[in-house]
Amino acid sequence: MVIGIVAGAVLVLGAIGAVAVRLTGSGFPEARYRLTVPKTLVDGKYELLQDRSETDGRKALEGTYDAKVHDPKPVVAQYASESPKESGALLVSGMYGRFKDSAGARKKMLRGAADSEGAFVAVRARDITPPGSDVTLSCQVLTVRQGGADSSLPMCAWADENTGATVGLVSEETAQQKAWDVDLAKTAATTLKVRTEMRQPIG
Fold first, then answer.
1. In this structure, are residues 122 and 142 in contact, taking their beta carbons and an 8 Å threshold?
2. Is the Cβ–Cβ distance between 18 and 65 less than 8 Å?
């Protein structure tokens, strides 16, 4: 299941790279932030299994072009948690660079994930702003079908002038839940934490 989800998440990069965003000005924003791939995420809960930025990430960006995206660099990583209380996986697919008018990019990223083979939108994307934050995320629940079985996959996306990514969370609990029972607010809070830990000032 995790392998299939990673493959689907990588397709999001192509959607980001090819997205046609609305022109709001003649210049590009300054490159002030980048995405890193730390050894752990979410206060050490998830440990890095694979950094696929230079393989799957580069492949996903090949052949994509957008006049309003400058200097895109992919970030694709798979993390795992072996906690006795909550084992599972965390998947990140995105990129950093200089982006014009990133509004709407979050939903386009989620649509890219939903177009992956074997994935279906079970809960349509909606915007969530976690309490105490000024960052708005877009979140949805996919039903992933493999081997004749359906599993729920919650995911959220963020986008700003320099960074954008989709975060998918896999756990035994959510996989077995009905899609409408999945706590997307919790997924959003985790995604915001991932953004805080991966998004770092350049230099």
1. yes
2. yes
Number of domains in the chain: 1
Beta strand ranges found along the chain (DSSP E): 33-35, 40-41, 46-51, 69-82, 87-99, 119-128, 137-146, 149-159, 163-171, 199-201
Please state, rounded to an integer, the average pLDDT across all residues of the chain. 81
pTM score: 0.85
Longest Cα pair distance anywhere in the chain, in angstroms? 52
Domain hosting 157: range is: 2-201
* Contact in structure between 84 and 112 (CB atoms under 8 Å): no
Is residue 164 within 8 A of residue 105, CB to CB? The reply is yes
The stretches in the chain having pLDDT less than 70 are 1-26, 60-69, 84-86, 101-103
* Residues shown for the chain: 203
Question: What is the edge-to-edge ordering of all strands in the sheet holding 87-99?
Answer: 40-41, 46-51, 69-82, 87-99, 163-171, 149-159, 137-146, 119-128
